[in-house]
Amino acid sequence: MRLKMRTAAATIACAFGGGTLAFAATPAIVSAIKARQANFKEIGGDFKAVGDEIKSGAPNLSAVRGAAHDLNQRAGGQAKYFVRSSGPDSGVKTRALPAIWSDAAGFAKMNGDFVRAAAGLDAAAQKGDVAGLVAARSTLGMACKGCHEKYRAQED
Amino acid sequence: MLIAAAWWTEKQRMLEEHRLVGYALFSLVLFRFAWALIGSSTSRFSAILRSPAVVCRYARHEFFRRDAARHAGHNPVGGWSVGAMLLVLSAQIVSGLVAVDVDGLESGPLSYLVSFDMGRLASRLHALTFNILLVLIGLHVAAVVFHALYKRDNLVMPMLSGLRRWEGERPTLQFAPLSRALAALVACVLIVWVLVKVVGRV
User: pLDDT, tens digit, for every residue of A60-79?
Assistant: First the structure.
């Protein structure tokens, strides 16, 4: 009886231990998630900086250029942080939805739109074309929103 | 009603409308502060924010007594409830003015004055103070219901009409003229309009 209990306990421990191991994100996954969130945060900051200048009516183009260029660089490097298993089951707090991986083609397309829109913003900023900048900002905003609606969980 | 509209427009991600509701609330809260300085006697700070001794006395001896003396305006505890709601509403408005969403897409009209991190912090505060506000409103309404059912004292009609049944010596209340209220309201709306349209950037 005692042996049986012990076996049962060991089985349960194994099951739980195994389960934890299976779900625990590797350091590489954790760092990809952290890097992804940090990069998105910088992109948010850049987007705000560009928006603030545009809303002023007389944008300070050198500030816009810096932010738009940084945003463009970061946008191009964002996709690589969406490594496999870095979704909600990673155990790390993330709003990335499983659809990013289950619908990889759709996600790749939207990422492409985002990268192109960011390049468009950078190009308009470097040219100093304010009307183009306003349009590019709105295109980029739509790209952000579109992807977030499909592939990001609502804020809790 | 505006607070419900603010909640709804945010949930639906109708940020343009959410900002408009915020400006309306801002105007009303500003008006309430103005009214606490130049309004009718029961609306003034001196009448709603009573000393701790008065509040304690009320809470200890009168809170649950059905036959306790009535108060012409807010009772000492109710007055602080108003003060707390006004304070939290102010925090709600200030944080909303500078809040920025996680994407840097949507923001309050004065958010250009703060950094992205500050705007994000304001946004989190905006969510937190909203929950505190709901609790305070819930308490206030619960207290009004308590007065109506337990103390048989209808507080809603006096709020609307300025009239209530009174026993004993008639209190001396000074009602500020309606014209002053209208002028103050117009001034508050104007202040908010200038802050949003002239200083602010949307």
Answer: 999 999 999 999 999 999 99
